[in-house]
């Protein structure tokens, strides 16, 4: 998989509003509400909300005083708590906004604080509180303004709450405004949930792939160690047996031990290094393959086996997963021959056939085999080595059979598809 950086300069991206510092929106709203309301007052703005009866004529409003400025700043200040305490923030911001409107101060952008509080409550998941609370606030406000509101021809008459009475059209417009805010917040919340779920699924998939890759590497480590340690064990026995009688042949066996142990250590370091890597993608392209078949046969010959290798068909590059599986099947089969073929000279025949749509690997020997504790031949289909080879073949959509040969010995035959299969795309990245 390519790790080269993308071409071209990286473009700067602004953080999402949810990642902004909590004070950014309140600071903007405090400035916007104060100066917007001052503009409405000095510009002959309406004596109340534009939905009030007769609004917009430019007469009879309550000038901004200390209480008015305090209410304009209180809403944005309360929004500093919107992330930790969204429901209390909504309730207090609604109370501040309603009090400002009941006092009939110049109508400006005061309702934006309440809109942000409604939005924050919905996005935070307090949907019922936001919807029910907004409905209750609107109902109470309409009820109070209808009961104590000042008629349009009496504006400027003073009183504690000189707000005008709303019309039916005004109530409809305010309700529609609240619905727009709430529905928009619901859409943003739903989109955020979908993005979070998609991120969770991606993270889970990455963790699963990493776990599967590490299990695969652990299996590779097992196969490497099992093969090389078996060779070392056989050669060590030969060296001990011939050390006094035939020192030169014992020297050859010890050299084979050295080579096998060196290869085992090299592969083990590579696999363990990948397993220990933190925050890195595990390697996807295995290095072992049928290209190393000659070296594998040479090591088996050094262990005392007579190994014959036959390759037929149109030899061509294989998919990395198929190449690795074929190599490991041959390696495990030769390991089993070394372990269980019994005394005497043993010949192992390795046949690899390249066909149009599949690769056929066959390994057979003419040994007697050593009986297992239950009387079945060692290395039979019930053994863990055979089970591992069968799992390799099945993972690629192929199959593997193993069992005694007629006339003695053991045979392993694997059929690996060259196209398709469950893991066909693996290893090519």
Discrete helix count? 10
The strand line-up of the biggest sheet is 1-2-3-5-4
- Helices and strands: which structural class? alpha+beta
In terms of DSSP E residues, the strand content is 5-15%
Spatial gap, N to C terminus: 4 Å
Mean pLDDT: 77
Shape: rod-shaped
Q: List SSEs in N-to-C order.
A: HHHHHHHHEHEEHEE
How many strands, what sense, and barrel or not for the largest sheet?
Answer: 5 strands, mixed
Helix share, percent = 40-55%
Which spans of ≥5 residues are poorly predicted at pLDDT below 50?
A: 1-10, 50-60, 278-286, 370-382, 420-429
Q: Over all CA atoms, what is the radius of gyration?
A: 40 Å
Keywords:
429 residues, 9% strand, 5 strands, alpha+beta, rod-shaped, disordered N terminus
Written account of the structure:
The chain has 429 residues and is of the alpha+beta class. The protein is built from 10 helices and 5 strands. The chain has helices spanning 24-42, 66-78, 86-102, 111-123, 127-148, 168-242, 247-276, 293-302, 320-340, 384-395, and strands at residues 306-313, 347-354, 358-365, 399-404, 410-417. A 5-stranded mixed β-sheet has the order 1-2-3-5-4, with helices on one face. Strand 4 and strand 5 (410-417) form a beta hairpin. Helix 2 runs antiparallel to helix 3 (86-102) and helix 4 runs antiparallel to helix 5. The longest helix is centred in the middle third of the chain and has 75 residues, at 168-242. The chain is rod-shaped. The protein starts with 23 loop residues before the first helix and ends in a 12-residue tail after the last strand. The model is unreliable at 1-10, 50-60, 278-286, 370-382 and 420-429 (pLDDT under 50).
């Amino acid at each position: 998989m390519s790790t080269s950086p993308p071409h071209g300069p990286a473009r700067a991206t602004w953080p999402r509003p949810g990642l902004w510092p909590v004070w950014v929106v309140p600071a903007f709203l405090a400035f916007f509400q104060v100066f917007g309301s001052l503009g409405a007052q000095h510009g002959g703005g309406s004596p109340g909300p534009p939905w009030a009866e007769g609004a917009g004529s430019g007469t009879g409003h309550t000038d901004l005083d200390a209480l008015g400025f305090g209410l304009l700043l209180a809403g944005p200040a309360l929004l500093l708590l919107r992330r930790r305490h969204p429901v209390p923030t909504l309730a207090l911001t609604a109370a501040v906004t309603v009090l400002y409107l009941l006092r009939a101060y110049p109508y400006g952008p005061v309702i934006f604080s309440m809109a942000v509080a409604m939005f924050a409550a919905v996005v935070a998941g307090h949907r019922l509180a936001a919807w029910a609370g907004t409905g209750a606030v609107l109902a109470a406000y309409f009820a109070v303004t209808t009961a104590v509101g000042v008629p349009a021809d009496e504006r400027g008459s003073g009183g504690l709450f000189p707000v005008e009475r709303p019309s039916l059209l005004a109530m409809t417009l305010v309700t529609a405004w609240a619905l727009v805010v709430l529905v928009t917040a619901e859409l943003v919340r739903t989109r955020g949930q979908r993005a979070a779920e998609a991120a969770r699924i991606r993270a889970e998939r990455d963790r699963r792939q990493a776990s599967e890759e590490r299990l695969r590497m652990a299996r590779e480590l097992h196969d490497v160690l099992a093969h090389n340690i078996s060779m070392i064990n056989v050669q060590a026995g030969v060296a001990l047996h011939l050390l006094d009688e035939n020192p030169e042949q014992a020297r050859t066996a010890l050299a084979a031990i050295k080579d096998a142990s060196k290869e085992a250590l090299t592969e083990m370091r590579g696999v363990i290094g990948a397993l220990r890597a933190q925050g890195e993608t595990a390697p996807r392209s295995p290095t072992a393959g049928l290209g190393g078949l000659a070296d594998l046969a040479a090591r088996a010959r050094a262990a005392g086996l007579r190994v014959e290798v036959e390759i037929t068909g149109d030899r061509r590059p294989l998919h990395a997963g198929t190449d690795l599986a074929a190599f490991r099947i041959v390696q495990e089969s030769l390991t089993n021959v070394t372990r269980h073929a019994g005394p005497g000279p043993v010949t192992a025949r390795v046949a690899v056939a390249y066909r149009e749509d599949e690769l056929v690997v066959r390994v057979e020997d003419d040994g007697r085999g050593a009986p297992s504790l239950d009387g079945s031949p060692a290395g039979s289909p019930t053994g863990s080595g055979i089970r591992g080879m069968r799992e390799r073949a099945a993972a690629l959509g192929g199959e593997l059979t193993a069992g005694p040969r007629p006339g003695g010995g053991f045979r392993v035959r694997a059929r690996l598809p060259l196209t398709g299969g469950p893991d066909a795309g693996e290893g090519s990245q």
